[in-house]
Automatic annotation (TrEMBL):
It comes from the Eukaryota. Residues 54-128 form the GCK domain. It comes from Brassica carinata (Ethiopian mustard). InterPro entries: GCK_dom. Gene3D superfamilies: 1.10.287.2900. Pfam families: GCK (PF07802). Residues 24-37 have a biased composition (Polar residues). Residues 1-16 have a biased composition (Basic and acidic residues). This is GCK domain-containing protein. Residues 1-54, 129-151 are annotated as: Disordered.
Amino acid sequence: MSSSDPKTENSTEKLGDSSPELGDSNSSEKLGDSSTVWKDPVESRGSYQPKEGGECSFCVFMKRGGCRESFTAWEVCMEEAEKNKEDIFTKCMEVNSALFKCMDAHSHYYHRVLSAEKAAAEQVKKEFEAEKNKEEEISEEEVAARKQAQG
């Protein structure tokens, strides 16, 4: 894992540098060029899957931003964990944390990923709370049924 500062990990995002910006007249990437458009993996349903002979569009997007190094470390960790049948959450917790810190530092670029992650976390929380409430209701019903049975 790299110990680089997430805010300075990759300086290619700064305006005025040599990196192409969408709409930059010096850029080889022009509006309408579909290769420059990031597609939400949820909305595009599977477009993030690897293309034949190339990288997935999500991976390309992640590596174009300021967190290339953190994302690559995360990819390697995930691949190793899967290959060795290790718990990915335990094994990759540090690189995952570093990746999200970096994305927060570069939120102007990664805002859609961060928004999707936040929405997913909120949905999981809602589902967990709903399940918890359902279990509590069942417990209350069981207590009432037992009291009624005892008479």
